[in-house]
Write a structure and sequence with these properties.
- This protein is an alpha+beta fold.
- The chain has helices at 56-62, 115-118, 155-165, 174-181, 191-197, 228-234; strands at 6-15, 24-26, 29-32, 36-37, 51-55, 73-75, 87-90, 94-101, 125-131, 133-135, 140-143, 172-173, 206-207.
């Protein structure tokens, strides 16, 4: 994508105050740098899934009711064409780092039988907040600055990436590994076998939470957005 190119606009906004609550349409949201959207359950500095962008074209193609995709930002963009690592400016100041396509989960089948299998990459794109700011319906969306490193849509490859970033002489708990890779904690039961298949290089890098291994436990800080990134892109925001 060319930098500083307009690609669309915000059509609607929603927040979820808790996992048990449905999305609630709002007139504006406040994006907080490295944290997510103020008041949303997915705001988490250590998650690659701080917010979800979904396209109006997916709603039209599958005749979905409002908020069926549980997005935060409804955009007039085909999100299946968005590329991981792209930085988007939304509104006057907010900068979002696109992370990876959101996997289709079974709750979609409540709207249309088999939808989770058919929707594919049109489910939406997950993102993190690089630079905060107010976002409102009608705000333009544009590509801003050079892309950052891409993240894989495949959760297994994201696991490997997190393990490869682990500082020397440190370990990571299975629960934290799942959080940083952007997958449900239920995947933790698959980690021992999966990591064993990766070979001896990865042996002992991830441990259960109750492990008594006497090594520092990495919390993942610095994995996503090093501090200089904010300064780099804040200088390139287009008014």
């Amino acid at each position: 994508m060319d930098t500083h190119m307009d690609i669309g606009r915000i059509e609607a906004l929603a927040l979820r105050p808790s996992l048990a609550a449905p999305p609630v349409r709002v007139d504006g949201v406040r994006a907080i740098a490295f944290q997510g959207l103020d008041g949303d359950v997915h705001a988490d500095p250590l998650s690659p899934r701080q917010l979800l962008l979904a396209g109006t074209d997916a709603y039209d193609a599958f005749a979905l009711p409002p908020h069926a995709l549980r997005e935060n930002l409804l955009v007039d963009v085909d999100t299946s064409r968005l590329v991981s690592g792209t930085v988007l400016q939304v509104g006057d100041s907010a900068l979002l780092r696109l992370m990876f396509q959101c996997e289709a989960c079974g709750h979609l089948d409540a709207h249309h039988l088999g939808l989770s299998a058919r929707i594919g990459t049109r489910r939406g794109m997950l993102a993190r907040v690089l630079v905060g700011g107010e976002i409102r319906p009608g705000d333009r969306i544009r590509v801003a600055g050079a892309p950052l490193p891409a993240w894989s849509d495949d959760w297994r490859e994201r696991i490997v990436h997190v393990l490869d970033t682990l500082p020397p002489a440190s370990v990571i708990t299975y629960k934290r590994l799942a959080q940083l890779a952007g997958i449900a904690s239920s995947y933790c039961r698959a980690f021992p076998g999966m990591i064993a298949r990766l070979g001896p290089r990865y042996a002992g890098k991830a441990v259960p939470s109750q492990s008594d291994i006497d090594l520092p436990r990495w919390d993942g800080r610095g994995l996503f957005d090093p501090a200089p990134v904010e300064r780099l892109f804040s200088a390139e925001v287009v008014p």
